[in-house]
Amino acid sequence: MAGPRLSSSSKKPALGHNKEPVPATPPPTDFGELDVLASAPVPATAVEVCHADGFSLNSGVRIGGGDGALLVGGEAFVWRPWEAGDGDGRRGEKGKGRRRLVNDKGQWEVAEEIRPLSPATRRAISNLGMRVEVLDTRNAASQYNMLATERGVEDVAAALIPIGWKEGAE
């Protein structure tokens, strides 16, 4: 014997996994609700433009003249690691062999192509509790902007070289 038949008017509505009725049409998507960083202030050190000879920051500061930029702790510093100095804050000479991207120990040498950090250097940085990425200038600036907005300028830093920088050029 068959059970009672339900007429189409007495059918129960389909229920979702949460036991709520399934709507006939999908709800409209509010894309404004998806922008989780919309209310986050843009850091003053966010890079707005990468120029051939420097950078323009969100604060209105323009770093030019072929200078690089160090963005650390919410502050921007002019950076010329290719000019060796004696550590007193003055710029070094631009003599032969002195315009290379090296630190005092000679650990960096950056050409037009991107070179990965050695496993030992990466391990040493990781042991300090830091992460490092080696990117081209535009992508590095974009990554810095996103991370500084998301995490705050106290947790993110960037060392940027102008996109027009050439080894040995004045």
Alpha-beta content class = alpha+beta
How far do the termini sit from each other? 97 Å
User: What share of the residues does DSSP label as strand, in percent?
Assistant: 5-15%
Number of strands: 6
| Discrete helix count | 2
Average pLDDT taken over every residue: 79
Tell me the major beta sheet.
3 strands, antiparallel
Output the helix-strand order.
Answer: EEEEEHHE
- Assembly form of the protein: single chain
- The percent of residues in helical segments reads 10-25%
Radius of gyration: 27 Å
Strands in their spatial order, largest beta sheet: 1-2-3
- What is the 3D shape? elongated
Identify low-pLDDT runs.
92-103
Pfam family, one: DUF498
Biased composition (Polar residues): 1-11
GO biological process, one term: mitochondrial respiratory chain complex I assembly
Region (Disordered): 1-34
Detailed description of the structure:
The structure is a single chain. With 170 residues, the chain is of the alpha+beta class. The protein has a domain at 47-160. It is built from 2 helices and 6 strands, in the order βββββααβ. The strands form 2 sheets. The protein has a 3-stranded antiparallel β-sheet, covered by helices on one side. A 3-stranded antiparallel β-sheet has the order 5-4-6, covered by helices on one side. A hairpin with a 4-residue loop joins strand 2 and strand 3. The longest helix is centred in the C-terminal third of the chain and has 15 residues, at 137-151. It is elongated. The termini are far apart. Mean pLDDT is 79; it is low at 92-103.
Keywords for this structure?
single chain, 170 residues, alpha+beta, three-stranded antiparallel beta sheet, 6 strands, 15% strand, MTH938-like_sf
